[in-house]
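Chain X:
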Amino acid sequence: MDPKSQCLELNDGHLIPVLGFGTYAPEEVPKSEALEATKYAIEVGFCHIDGAHLYQKEEQVGQAIRSKIADGVKREDIFYTSKLWATFLRPELVQPALEKSLKNLQLDYVDLYIIHFPVALKEDLGMTALEDNSQCGDF
């Protein structure tokens, strides 16, 4: 199967593979498994890797991608999607959040950066706290 034939064209002309390997796993799954699973996914032909700051596995996923690049995979042949978490939706927080993800991944760029959850949360609530609507930020 030709990976390029299994892509959709984005409005800027770039291609996004329609099938992606998700890197979410519950907290009880060791982070080292994210490293091994991501490396294996690339080995078997996944060229779209889906990650997020919320998953708390960016370091391991980035290490896996860099490992496969060291083995001869071209960076431009891996489409990496990351996500902006709901506590970072204020305009002044977007770029620092992306830069933090890039630092964690140790990559120069992500191919797609999307909003993870379309509801703003106050920054001081932590990553997943949402007790009632009064804690939601402004849109």
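Chain Y:
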Amino acid sequence: MAMDLKHSHSVKLNDGHFMPVLGFGTVASDDVPKSKAAEATKMAIDVGFRHIDSAYVYQNEKEVGQAIRDKIADGTVKREDIFYTTKLWATFLRPELVRPALERSLRNLQLDYVDLFIIHNPTAMKPGEDLMPMDASGKLIFDTVDLRETWEALEKCKDAGLTKSIGVSNFNHKLLEMILNKPGLKYKPVCNQVECHPYLNQSKLLEFCKSKDIVLVAYSALGSQRDANWMEKDSPILLEDRILNAIAKKHGRNPGQVALRYQVQRGVVVLAKSFNEKRIKENFQIFDFELTPEDMKAIDGLNRNFRFIKLLFTVDHPHYPFSEEY
């Protein structure tokens, strides 16, 4: 069988499209200039990344889109070589807001379509321009939306050719089942993008997703950027883990490469975020070594169900996803 190089480091989704198993994440804290996202995205494409993950709420899609178009213009890639993901923010979950939200991302990107459009969070918030709508006391204002109706609106975006594939993010198995059991379901989610790393290996959710032919996509796979808005300061530093470092040393690698390779070997698509050129290069170099079954078992043993990103500001929402075990 001739090897299909285009898809050699890709996974086939349940709708027939292919997603590269290693993606480049573009989220950055507010103090990082948006221009950095453009520079880093260009570096990532030059290094070999073909899967670019962004979101409306990151507020950098103009810059990321420009970087992709520049790399198409200079002949490095064609549009069809790039797998681009954007996300539907929680203030746009009402069905009538879904397509306009995607169209706004497309205008920012100046692209005709995205490859993947996913629900960013299941916790609907009050619609409007404010990404974090707060009341006078500083509490988030939630919205009540039937996620099955949101999903139907995503299906229509796929039918309209605005996105090739549709999926979800931060869903637990019960929320996934609600979509999967929806009467008249036209398309299953192709993926569920969740926090996943050796301290939170999501083995139960991974099993569940595999049983439904849904790809698990890992964010915060290297631990997390230590952004005080999202995580507690005293959180453990994954890449300083003794066992990860010992395995890395044995393979002549760094602990980040081991953490990324671990996900790929267990059938998880993994996102790596860095705006540092050396690190971007290193993060891509995970296809020329293999972890042994003993290595994999040792890394599995690091799981402590520790979440860096708890999204506690949505804990009172009926769809808050992390009260369930998986």
